[in-house]
Amino acid sequence: MAAPAITRPTSVSQNGHGPDTQVDNHRLARNAGMPLDLGIIEEVQANRSAIERRADTLSKRRTVKKEWQAAWLLRAITCIDLTTLAGDDTPGNVLRLCAKARQPVRGDLLDALGVANLGLTVGAVCVYHNLVSTAVEALQGTNIPVAAVSTGFPAGQNPLPLKIAEIEASVAAGAREIDIVISRAHVLTGDWQALYDEVRAFRAACGEAHMKTILATGELATMRNIARASFVCMMAGADFIKTSTGKESVNATLPVSLVMVRAIREYQERSGYLVGFKPAGGIRSAKSALDWLILMKEELGDDWLRPNLFRIGASGLLTDIERQLEYFVTGHYSAAYHQPMV
Question: What CATH number matches the domain at 9-19+35-332, 1.10.10.10, 3.10.129.10, 3.20.20.70, 3.30.310.180?
Answer without folding.
Answer: 3.20.20.70
